[in-house]
User: Which sequence fits this backbone?
């Protein structure tokens, strides 16, 4: 009593002090009244208040709304000492389970919040067979409290996302099960990714297996899919949706670029005179995948037997063109026109190939001849035998232009 | 995604360095050899850009090393710097090759039964095309599917950069030639 009265006296003196310092007594007053609360006040501001709570809980006896276990969402001044006799062991189990399952702070906080607020209404009741249930169904209880219901929705959703094997079994005291929302949400536990306890069986999602092989397979497929998406931005005309046509475009584009590099490396040499061996060499190197005779300093024309039939025609054509070009450009042009081809500047060719999306194979087989009279870079646009030959270039626009000019 | 212009600059620098090495014997070379020289130095330059050691780069180094060995008739002074670069970069590619070729042999099987379902047809189409792509890419025979897509991404980027640099060079040199 005496210390109490002394306290009271001090309080009175504080009250009687001047009004200028009125701010000071008030926090002091609050401090005085909450002396026993303050020991954990700093916990409010900790990031890991949850850990602190969990570490606090086991030594403390029942799960009370004691201010010794403060929560920022609680009103620390509330004196409700509602004790729940069943809670001690269950809460220990719960806390250990929480630690095991690596629950995020948010969901655990939600769980923690749920229990006291429901406890406020005195309706939450955790059954004794908490530990033994093995299903992943969460039936949340609700006193019809709308906020609690919403909380449970969010809670079950986050719980479902976080830990696949939560085995909480919240039974309503009055046998009133929660609405179908949470139940249906938790009927399907996610099969992958969750750090599951090894002994428990996880019910699989619809259409997905749980064994590690298929998981690895799925991961690999997803990785490939995202890389293909990245490729789509690089390659022009890549708005195809299925894999095969996407691969087609990629192949064509790579071939196109490779041929361009080869042609450009030749073009700097200048002079139409010695084009023939270069052309022969280039066409052999270029498109065919079965001919690998690179290091051959081949001045002689490429052996047609080794090349596929489509490449063979290309080779012969280019041979002729090169030979003709040596003599006279005009004859070369005539020869080309007889075949239904024409010469065009390489910049125009690339512009056409990128502009027209409807051609199947926009690849242009470029023979870049740096003509001495300064005509600029020219490209022989050749028509393949048709869309069936993969290595050939089909430039339908050139073909149409030629036929139009002839007629 | 790499910065394209920095890639181009690096490629240009290295290519010019390689070309200079061949400069001494410019008169002796015929056109074919000149073209090979240009292509070789361009390949080397492309393969040595950036620190990423993707598979196709290693394969490109290996290929160019064989090409250089074939051209022993050229003077040794020019080829030795390139050879040194190649040797340095290709030593670690050989064990990789051997390991992966062994795996490929095991994977091959004889498909005797042909299935007609749509999914199998689609799978076959895709497989045919991936095989084609693998043949295109240098060192592509040794890659698996996921690796393949990565490598093509990389390869397409460098090819694009190479083409643009070469084209700029060609047009500028043409202007230079035609001016006076």
Assistant:
């Amino acid at each position: 009593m005496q210390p109490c009265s002394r306290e009271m006296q001090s309080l009175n003196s504080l009250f009687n002090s001047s009004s200028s310092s009125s701010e000071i007594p008030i926090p002091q007053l609050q401090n005085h009244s909450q002396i026993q609360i303050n020991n954990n006040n700093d916990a409010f501001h900790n990031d890991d208040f949850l850990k602190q709570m969990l570490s606090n809980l086991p030594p403390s006896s029942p799960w009370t709304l004691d201010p010794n276990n403060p929560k920022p969402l609680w009103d620390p001044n509330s004196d409700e000492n509602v004790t729940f006799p069943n809670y001690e062991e269950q809460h220990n189990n719960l806390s250990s389970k929480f630690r095991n399952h690596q629950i995020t702070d948010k969901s655990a906080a939600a769980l923690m919040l749920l229990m006291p607020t429901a406890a406020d209404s005195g309706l939450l009741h955790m059954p004794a067979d908490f530990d033994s249930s093995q299903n992943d169904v969460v039936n949340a209880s609700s006193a019809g409290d709308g906020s609690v219901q919403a909380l449970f929705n969010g809670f079950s959703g986050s719980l479902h996302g976080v830990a696949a094997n939560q085995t909480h079994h919240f039974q309503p005291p009055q046998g009133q099960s929660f609405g179908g929302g949470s139940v249906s949400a938790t009927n399907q536990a996610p099969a992958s990714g969750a750090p599951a306890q090894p002994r428990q069986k996880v019910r699989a999602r619809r259409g997905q297996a749980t064994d590690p092989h298929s998981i690895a397979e799925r991961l690999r497929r997803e990785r490939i899919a995202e890389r293909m998406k990245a490729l789509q931005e690089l390659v022009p005309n890549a708005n195809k949706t299925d894999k095969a046509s996407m691969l087609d475009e990629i192949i064509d584009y790579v071939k196109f670029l490779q041929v361009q590099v080869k042609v450009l490396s030749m073009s700097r040499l200048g002079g139409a005179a010695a084009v023939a061996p270069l052309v022969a060499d280039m066409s052999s190197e270029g498109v065919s995948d079965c001919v690998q005779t690179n290091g051959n300093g081949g001045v002689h024309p490429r052996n047609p037997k080794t090349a596929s039939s489509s490449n063979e025609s290309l080779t012969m054509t280019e041979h002729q063109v090169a030979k003709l070009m040596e003599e006279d450009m005009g004859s070369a042009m005539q020869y080309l026109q007889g075949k239904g081809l024409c010469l065009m500047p390489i910049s125009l060719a690339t512009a056409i190939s990128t502009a027209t999306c409807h051609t199947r194979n926009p690849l242009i087989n470029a023979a870049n001849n740096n003509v001495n009279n300064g005509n600029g870079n020219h490209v022989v646009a050749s028509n393949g035998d048709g869309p069936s030959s993969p290595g050939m270039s089909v430039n339908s626009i050139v073909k149409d232009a030629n036929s139009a000019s002839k007629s | 995604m790499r910065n394209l212009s920095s890639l181009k600059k690096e490629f240009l620098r290295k290519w010019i360095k390689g070309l200079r090495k061949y400069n001494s014997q410019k008169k002796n070379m015929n056109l074919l050899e000149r073209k090979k020289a240009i292509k070789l130095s361009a390949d080397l330059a492309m393969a040595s850009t950036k620190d990423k050691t993707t598979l196709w780069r290693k394969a490109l180094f290996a290929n160019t090393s064989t090409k250089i060995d074939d051209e022993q008739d050229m003077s040794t002074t020019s080829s030795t710097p390139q050879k040194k670069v190649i040797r340095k970069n290709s030593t670690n590619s050989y064990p990789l090759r051997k390991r992966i070729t062994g795996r490929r042999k095991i994977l091959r099987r004889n498909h005797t039964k042909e299935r007609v379902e749509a999914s199998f047809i689609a799978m076959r189409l895709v497989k045919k095309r991936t095989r084609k792509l693998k043949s295109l890419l240098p060192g592509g025979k040794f890659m698996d599917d996921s690796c393949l897509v990565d490598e093509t991404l990389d390869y397409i980027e460098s090819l694009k950069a190479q083409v643009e640099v070469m084209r700029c060079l060609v047009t500028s040199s043409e202007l230079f030639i035609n001016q006076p």
